[in-house]
Amino acid sequence: MNPAPKDDSSRKALEYSKFYGGKVGFAPKVPVRSLQDFSIWYTPGVAAVSKAIEAQPELSFEYTGRWNTIAIVTDGTRVLGLGNIGPEGSLPVMEGKALIYNYLGGVNALPLPVRVKSADELMGFVKALEPSVGGVNLEDIESPKCFEVLDRLREEMSIPVWHDDQQGTAGVTLAALFNALEVTGRELRGTRVVLYGAGAANVAAERLLVEAGADPKDIIVVDSKGILHPEREDIDQLMLKNKWKYELAIRTNGDRVSGGLKDALKGADALVAAARQGPDAIVPDEVAVMNKRAIAFFLANPVPEMLPDAALSAGVEVVATGRSDFPNQVNNSLLFPAVFRGALDVKAKTITDPMVIEAAKELAAFAQEKGLRRDYILPTMVQWEVYPRVATKVGQAAISEGVARRSLSPQESMNAAMAAIERSRRVMSALRNGGVIVDPPE
Amino acid sequence: MEIRHARKDDVEALSDLIVRTKRLNNEFDPLFAVVPDAKARAERYIQSSLAAPGHLLLVAAEGKKVVGVLRAEMRERIFYEPHQEGRITDLYILPEHRRKALGDEMIQQASAELKKMGAEIVVADVPAQNEIANRFYVKRGFRALINQFAKRP
């Protein structure tokens, strides 16, 4: 099997990006029947709307597009597998994300890479954006900076702040794990999970796993220096430089196992690798020591830590990767459009971990209804009915968590999500049918 | 958890803790770069403290497991009063046993024992840049006594 993606998507991406001059752009929502309409949409009419909002700022969620608009903010320090490529370099990625938000979630997302020198400067920018948007998607920010930024912004802002590389990846991973446990006849409680890599995704995965009912003592985290445990030689350094890893080292690994990945995998049921490019970052010899009916996710992109056929031959039963050309794609795009759809529809103030867990459970339930197999544990992006369903669960969870500004019944949540998503699809059809968006040249 | 005097069979564990303290100091200040054979030196350091009069070596232990160390020695302040000083040179507690007031207990027990040994004042050495250690002592009523300044010649 060829480890590199086999289509010619790179060539097409370059050609088409140039042809279209970018992937997203602004489109009006109101009719302009004649220039007279500008006295409504702009001055003098608009002043009345401004005064109403001044008196009651919450009305900005009713009278403007704020209710359905989010910013996708990055400092460009850890983009895909490319590393620190700077804000301009990250713009195509953020545009792509905005397109997915729009098409799958009906969310109006603004790609906003920014040039900042520090975490404080980044947080200052995001906080200053609050009046214009209903939420913020942080993207591709290096670890451990991303932890501090997310934690503080979640605390200090009253709109949802989401870091997709933490909550998004961890949420989809959790959904995949729920179903992999189902396929292999296990319960979360009592399952021994090894998290390989202690970056954004796995730090969040550990938190969600525990919130969902896993015992932290049954989780072992392994980073590039080996198994995390409270007496590792660099523990005091972690305390000062990465308190998230430090706390993981103390909270997890109840048996105080030390050593490397293979030591961690002895007797483990599940492996979630979000570590480094494969295809040989993990070798068959290492996964072979796992328990029978083992589960292994290799989430590095574009080349998984270990290729699925190698893992299957080494005895792993359920394998997932981040790639669409293998079965079981753990893909953030399954989650983030729906999470924001649901959060925006109830005007949520934040996205709590229980909301993410509800989203993961609904993703898992959707795949269960279609019939789980070892090579089908997650919905795919084309099963678009999953998005309004997940959005509904997120909205309902926000209401029961007490973070929603607007209360909707489950049916109303579903209707709102369907309406927004269908609108985006209709806009796309109309623009294509009307010849505004033409097909790319062959 | 038990706080007791160190024994010979604690040397291995205690020297590991001593090296950890020194490495922690280095995290704050490059002038505390730890030598490669620190472990062997720490063993000799602990052994000599065990044997010598005027030295105090306390161990925090959970069952057989050594989780903390406090080393102190009596010194004379020849020009000043108070005259007899008990100097805490090292204090370290393993991460998972922190924030449980164990450091407090060790300091209190050490103070009491140093007083019995004749100390009229208890002094603790910590690197100026080690904010955690500085905060720890200030919170417990200690105050800065001497500022030590350093510069490569």
Short description:
The complex is a heterodimer of chains A (442) and B (153). Chain A has 442 residues and is of the alpha/beta class. Chain A has helices at residues 9-20, 38-41, 46-55, 60-63, 86-105, 119-129, 145-156, 164-183, 200-211, 235-241, 243-251, 261-265, 284-287, 308-313, 336-345, 353-370, 386-401, 410-433; strands at residues 69-74, 108-113, 135-138, 161-163, 193-196, 219-223, 226-227, 270-273, 294-298, 316-321.
Task: Characterize the structure shown.
Chain A has helices spanning 9-20, 38-41, 46-55, 60-63, 86-105, 119-129, 145-156, 164-183, 200-211, 235-241, 243-251, 261-265, 284-287, 308-313, 336-345, 353-370, 386-401, 410-433, and strands at residues 69-74, 108-113, 135-138, 161-163, 193-196, 219-223, 226-227, 270-273, 294-298, 316-321. Chain A has 442 residues and is α/β, with parallel strands linked by helices. Chain A has two domains: 22-159, Malic enzyme, N-terminal domain (Rossmann fold, 3-Layer(aba) Sandwich), CATH 3.40.50; 165-335 and 348-385 and 395-408, 3-Layer(aba) Sandwich (Rossmann fold), CATH 3.40.50. In chain A, the strands form two sheets. Chain A has a six-stranded mixed sheet. The model of chain A has no long low-confidence stretch (mean pLDDT 95). Chain B is of the alpha+beta class and 153 residues long. Helix content of chain B is 37%, strand content 25%. Chain B has a five-stranded mixed sheet, with helices on both faces. In chain B, 27% of the residues are buried. Classes of the chains: A alpha/beta (442), B alpha+beta (153). The interface between A and B is small, with 12 and 7 residues.
